[in-house]
Amino acid sequence: MLIDLSLTMKSGQTPEFVWDENNGRFSRLVGGKLCEIWHENRLRFTPEFESYVADFLRAGDYLEKIYKKINTDEVMGKAVKKYRGLRITKNDPWETTLSFICSINNNIKRIRKNVQSLMINGKVMTPEEILNADISFARLGFRQKFLKKTAEMIIGGHSMEEIKTMKYDEAIEHLTKLHGIGDKVANCVLLFGYGFLESFPIDTWIRKMMTENYFGGKKTSDEKITDFAFDRWGKYAGYANQYLFCYARGVRV
DNA sequence: TCCCAGGTGTCGA
DNA sequence: TCGACACATGGG
Description:
- The two termini are about 20 Å apart.
- Helix 5 crosses helix 14 (about 235-250).
- The strands form two sheets. Strands 1-2-3-4 form a four-stranded antiparallel β-sheet. Strands 5-6 form a two-stranded antiparallel ribbon.
- Among the domains are: about 5-70, no CATH class; about 95-195, Endonuclease III, domain 1.
- A hairpin with a 2-residue loop joins strand 5 (about 120) and strand 6 (about 125).
- With about 250 residues, the protein is of the alpha+beta class.
- The radius of gyration is 18 Å and the shape is globular.
- The longest helix is centred in the middle third of the chain and has 13 residues, at about 145-155.
- The chain has 14 helices and six strands.
- It binds a DNA duplex (13 and 12 nucleotides) through helix 7, helix 9, helix 11 and helix 12.
């Protein structure tokens, strides 16, 4: 399987907030047991987590095939070359939702701190725990009320399970009804939490990247950028997005 | 000290 | 529908 493990784990996806790293060895508790992943000639991991890791790293995604689909122009060509082996990860939906609520108007270092402070025994606090506990120790700032309100709505019956059976448009509409979840966070949740590879989250980096490289520097609405991305990269727009995101930020691992 | 961060909700034109 | 602004906190 083609993978740059360090890049994948530290590219601003959910794992950067919830996995630990020690000399290129990534670890976390899964079901109370320590799961480790590292690269040594090839990808290696704690044996009993084979199927978990395959799902987490989306082993079924054949990157060469995806590159053929998304490598449509010079900019993407450079991004794909520079970040070869970057994979989209598949994470727990609630963990991803909580993480990207913490991401709002925040930087990656502090997002990790915020999320880590909401973890107990290797797991993020459940919606019930978030709603019932005093979580001011996490210093989420204005995001605290977003997280509490979203937790309350989920407990009140706004199903996160049903999203698995929804089409993309319906899923976005469903998610953005939650307080504090707008288009950007919803797209991240669908991409990293539910595996909707067509999701195209538009943040400050992507907006700048897209307007500069595909719209001649002209101010462009997010809706138009989204239409362009779907049109150009189709069902792999999410992969295109992640490569452009790293390229825009100049990520180097 | 100052600007900014993987944005969102709200309000007024 | 669109622009402006507040929102908490801390990294660089």
